[in-house]
Structure formats: structure tokens, C-alpha cells
Protein: MHC class I antigen
Organism: Dicentrarchus labrax
Amino acid sequence: MKHVFLLILLCHVSSAGKIVKHSLKFIFTASSGVPDFPEFVAAGVVDDILSGYCDSNKKIVEPKQDWVNRLFEDDPQHFELYTTECSEKPLFFKARINNLKQRFNQSGGVHVLQRMSGCEWDDETGEVNGFNKYGYDGEDFISFDLKTLTWINLKPQAVTTKLRWDTDKARIKYNENYLTEIFPEWLKKYVAYGNSSLQRKDLPSVSLLQKTPSSPVSCHATGFYPDSALMFWRKDGEQLHKDVDHGEILPNHDGSFQMSVDLNLSSVTPEDWRRYDCVFQLSGVKNDIVTKLDKAEIRTNWGKTGN
């Protein structure tokens, strides 16, 4: 939650295997005491891709994907709905964060309230799971349980909120309707509109990098999409786990991703290098990208080591 602003911009997770689960997340963030940053930020995320955005400074809905523009052109009422939310939600969240600051006996400092609501939909089984949860200052605060149709307090200070919201039957019905009916309907619509981009498969360029002759060799892949990818080193066709350091999957500025995996060669003799290779696998793509460990292909600060 402390890094919520990064979450909004970089929200993505890694998954393995064929992607059949789609997700819709609405992330609302209210903050106080953060200089040069909007007091309210809202983000719509479809299949872990930022699709729409608004904040209390601009007060306009900003589509972040071409398919969202097409959706709004075809369905102006949908755009109007989001415009209304962008206008009304800042006041709602500002009042709520002020209430929480009083409850926690807080005055100055940086404080962040976040709500994440939405659903997941498995397009093979049809299973739908809705969620609605709040976090405050880096910790879970309260969440809605669809099975019992009650709120679960995750902090002692949330008990008062739970008791009040549990008696608000209109709120309960509202949440049930959105989490089980409206959000899944929207998600299916968004997936249909954004299918070409959400389901696209972009293969990366793979390079071997080394800072110094004694440094580990890094197998670096960049430009792939989606982020459901694996990369590892092999020796004689067997995956290595020793002397290997896996880096995180990171986003590029163009929406694609990059990753790297390092191999420590300090105990490997030059004649054994040919036994090693780096393998990149992208979910949904049949063929792997295999890069042989070749000294002539390793790029360093001074160019290819083979030159």
C-alpha cells in the first residue's frame, strides 16, 4: 500500500500455463500529506493492463488502450458512468480518509486509503469470483465476503465499520449485485473489445550480457508480452538451479516486459560452455527461444567478447 502509486501504474502479475482467467480491477486511492500528487486517483485494470485512469486534479476519464476508446464511442453511456464516478468519488474518499485519520488518532503525515474491487472470470469453466476490499496505510482494513454477505474486519479499528455496514442491507445488495452480475458482464464486454491486444503474443529479443570477464553472464529478454513467461539456464538439456539468479519480470515503457536470469560461470571451464544454453518460454507459444552460451555472442561494456 505504501507503494500504491507504483501499483496503479505497473499493476501486473505473473502466471503460468494457458491464460483462461480474466480479471477486472478498479483501484481507488485517496491520500493526504503527499506533495505534488492528486488526493484521489482511480485506475481501471483489465487482465492486469491499465485500461483507464482519472484523478482529482484533471477530473477527466483517460482511456489508456485503443479498445477503450472504441468502447466509449460505441457505448456513450458507459463513458458517462465513468465520468460521473470520476467526479463524485474524490469527495467520498476524502471524507472516508478523514474519518479514518480521526479513528486512528492521526493528524499530519502521509496516509493512504485504497479500495480494490472487481472480479475474476474463468472463460473455460464460467466461474466468477468477485472481491471488494479496503486497505489503509499499508495494511488490510476490511473486505466483503460474498459467501456470507457480510464484511470482515481485518483490523480492530474496522469493527465499527463492519457493524455499521453489516446492518446496511442496501449496501450489501449493491455489492452483491456489482460483484456477481455487473462487473462480470463488464469484464466479458471488455475482453471482447480488447481481445486482439489482451490476447496478443509478442516474442522478445534475447541477448547475453556480461559486465566484466569475471561477472555472471546474464540472459536478458526484452519486448515480450504478456508477462506470463519463464526463463532459465540449462546444462546438457537439464534446468539448472545452482549458481543461477532469477530477476523479476519488469515492465517496459511501451507496455511490453523484460526479464533476466544470471549464470555464475566461475566454476565452469571454457570447454564446458557449449553444454549450456538459456531458454525463454512464453505462455501460449509452442516454440521456445533457445540461446547457446557462446563467448562470441556475449555483449559487454566494450562490445562482443569475441572481437
About this structure: The chain is about 25% helix and 35% strand. The CA atoms of residues 208 and 219 lie 5 Å apart. The chain has a mean pLDDT of 89. The chain has two domains: 21-199, 205-292.
